[in-house]
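fyi for ur records
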Amino acid sequence: MPRPLRSSHVDYSDATRKELTIIDAAARLQRRFGRQALANYIVSEAEDVSDLLEVAVLLKESGLLVPGEVPELRLNLIPLFETIEDLRNSAQVMEALFSEPYYRELLRCRGDLQEVMLGYSDSNKDGGFLTANWELYKAEVGLVKVFAKHRVRLRLFHGRGGTVGRGGGPSYSAILAQPPGSVAGQICITEQGEVIASKYSDPDIGRRNLETLVSATLEASLLDSKDHSEEHPDYRDALEEMSAIAFRAYRELVFEDPGFVTFFRAATPIAEIADLNVGSRPASRKKSDRIEDLRAIPWVFSWSLARIMLPGWYGFGSAIETWVSNRDGGLELLQEMYGKWPFFHALLSNMDMVLAKSDISIASRYAELVTDTELRERVFSRIEQEFKCTVKWLLAITGQKSLLESNPALARSLHSRSPYIDPLNHLQVDLLRRYRKGGADDSLKRAILLTINGITAGLRNSG
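which gave:
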């Protein structure tokens, strides 16, 4: 019988008691309802091998890991790689984990299957749209190689949200855009927020969406797809260089401009989202105004309501303009990448949709809520300039004359919805101004909530 590490005679900290209580409850659930009732343990912010092995120790204390010559792990241990740095280190972490003999023994009792979760939300908030998507793609390529080396089956769990700023977008094209080998007969995808209602509230629509996911998974698994970034090193080099430029542009605005947080909190309804309890969890992980501590959902949701949708495009225009100006034939290469590389095509198609739902003229009304004139003009002018630059280069690469030209059905849908959405935005700005001046009666709060619901319903995939 293995020696337990915890004792009823020891007074543990609140954090330790909380974790042990959760794991004990998981063990009781399995004993009562079976192991499939609770099969997974996701380790958030996985940065090193120790993050998973520490959880294994805790599981042993509750009987969810039975040690011995042939150990038995009764939960899947799933690392979640979220930030840009974590994504870059993910293959290295899994290589070290698989090189640990005891962990390989644990995996054997799980059928040599390892699930890995990739975080789209925090990686985007950390590094911007272009860099996050490119680092996610590279992480998948690296993981496929490590898993093949150690003969472990890979199941990727994509933590996608509703909006493009959190990895959202059409599921079919997203699955087909994954690197070869990353969809090997199975894939795990989160469906969150308003996406659940829009996709699964009606049985026929729900069935159609599930059929779409299954068909894309089969197609990605069975067809002889090629990794164009491996076949064409110039594609990979181009995206690597553009990603670095976009990353700098994004970080300079969001994390290095000393007034950006003030602008963000005044020019978007983030404060009202928190005050009015719009959401399933607190807006921030800690009592802090830092962007790093803000949860990803209110981050993208706030920008969507203000019709700026910054997390879904910012930095792209600067990256393309800088890169093309220093490369002969640069635009032609990007046009070729758009035509031949599913990943790059899906990336630009999603951004096309986000830009079409944005409206800089309406966004300028939200910016007027910033009382500091110098701050407002400085930050908003950068956003407006980057928006125009991004639209310009997106159209140049795709060959479109206008946004969503290649998707006329969505363009018509947005055109018909705009007369209903736009007035709600203007009304919301006035309501926010009154609310922030001290008007806290219930009718005003309800009016703000109704505008939030209306704008969200009209825009869709906004949170």
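The longest strand covers residues 113-119. thats all i got for now
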